[in-house]
Amino acid sequence: MLVRTRIFSFLLTSHLRRPSQIALMDSPSSRTRSKFSSSSSSSSYDVDSLLSPKLLEDDGKRSLPTSGWGKFLGYVGVVTPIYLTTVLPVMIGSQIVTQLSTKLLGSGGSDVESGAEGSLSVDDVNVSSLIPLNERAYDVVILGFTGFTGRLAAAHLAKAYQDGSVKWAVAGRNLKKVHDTLASVAEELDLGPDALKNVGIIECDTSDNEAVTNMCKQTRVVCSTAGPFAKYGTPVVAACARTGTSYADITGETEWVKSMIMKYGDVAKSTGARILSLCGHDSVPWDCSSQHLAGMLEAKGEKVKKIVAYDEVAGAPSGGTIATIVHAVSTLTQGDKFAFDPLLATEEGTKSSYKVVDNNIAFPKRIGDKYLGAFVMAACNVQAVKKSMALRYGDKYEGKLAYTEGSSHPDFKSAFCTQLELFMGMSVVLSAPLRAVAIALGGVPKPGQGPSKKQMERGWLRVHMVAEGDKGSAVESVIYYPRDAGYRDTARMLVESGLCMALQPDKIKCSGGVMTPGYALGDLLIERLKVGGTKFASRDVKVGGASKL
């Protein structure tokens, strides 16, 4: 039981060890006590208090122990052979069967089956007939409310905006379940029976285009947690683009995001709808941090050419996330074909000449004084960064960014053991027979289930990012979430992304289209997140020789 629980606790977020010293570039300032400046305020954080283990200990957090020689040798001599001879072959065989059946029988969950329509053109929309945003009943609607993350999103709204400053509603296809869940949220937060009486309730089945359109017309922003998004999200994006309603979701399904860019980007731009995917743990921390650092370098007259992200995280997966992974992998061969990568599309729709090279860690590797291992969401994060940089630099700058991301570990033993646990867990999830056994044994949560309240309270995420400019300057940032970022703070990131668009539209640089949270919201979102407990700080780092990046 202990081994099974441990494997799945590492399934989607590598539980990383806190470094005693952050790896910086060669610089005298990297070895002395210095100050981080807040992103857009006069406050500052002392580097030691922000980066040292003391911060987490003050929060009641505890670092996971490093891997000793006994564990390391056991993983090398016992676990690795089991993985290579049993788990991995079963997973490969299962995927072969899945891909063949998908090609022969269809995905069983395509956009067409979920009610989506085809691509829209600007000519399909009468912009003059759109309902003005200031005449809509709600600032934001939470779609997928009865799911695990949707419930957390509603709880954040209920608790953080008790003053009634935000007009919001919840939407779902089963009205009884929606009513019951809303009452449960009020009870859990001890708000009283009438505390949420003004929260709107909308019946909406994503397979019913009329119902989706009706929902969109009532609100300025739709915040969706209803995934897998490739299965349920397309009709929602289409309706938002058509009605001039802004949209945010928590997907990490970048192939689906590409499709949304090409199908609905032009229409969204014409109606003023801001369509933002990747607004949760995937990939706000990395997307916003990289955009902030790019802005710091631009202030020095430089473009960013190199980024390294050191990730530390503790958390656990939900059943919905696992279902999304399974669906995404099972439909990999069904992706749309485009003239060029949609993530390279500029605001004008042309192909950006600025390239992002994916140098993410695949196997444990030493960088500076730390070992970086594979991080499960790095493949998604680099795609978000790619899109943001394409939007930022357009087709007027022929530069290249080398992006590296990995989980940070103090030594090779810890990096190896954590990475093997990650590979083992992912292989079980992607193998139908092994996944069924794991669910039966309680090792994998079902859709609608997720980490306990206690687990989420003890979760945390910290991303230390270092960026180098094309003229030699260097900057760095740290973003820290003192609670579970995979779900509890993902819900908060989603809601605050939506509220940026609903309440502060004049502070957003783009007027419409399919964008990223880092490019469209950036520091505006960071500041809203800081109010809820997220810490963010950045500083200049002088390069005094060869970079350690």
Explain what the structure shows.
By secondary structure, the chain is α/β, with parallel strands linked by helices. It folds into 2 domains: 2-72 and 74-83 and 281-330 and 350-541, no CATH class; 122-276, 3-Layer(aba) Sandwich (Rossmann fold), CATH 3.40.50.720. 42% of the residues lie in helices and 17% in strands. It is globular and about 65 Å long. The model is unreliable at 1-55, 107-114 and 544-549 (pLDDT under 50).
Q: Which terms would index this structure?
A:
549 residues; eight-stranded mixed sheet; Rossmann fold; 2 domains; alpha/beta; disordered N terminus; seven-stranded parallel sheet
Topology:
Layout: H1 2-9, E1 35-37, E2 44-46, H2 47-51, H3 53-58, H4 69-105, E3 138-143, H5 148-160, E4 168-172, H6 175-188, E5 200-203, H7 209-217, E6 219-224, H8 229-232, H9 234-243, E7 246-249, H10 254-271, E8 274-276, H11 284-298, E9 304-314, H12 319-330, E10 355-358, E11 365-367, E12 370-373, H13 378-393, E13 400-409, H14 412-429, H15 432-440, H16 453-458, E14 460-469, E15 474-481, H17 488-503, E16 513-515, H18 517-520, H19 523-531, E17 535-541
Parallel strand pairs: 3-4, 3-6, 4-5, 6-7, 7-8, 8-16, 9-13, 10-13
Antiparallel strand pairs: 1-2, 9-14, 11-12, 12-13, 14-15, 15-17
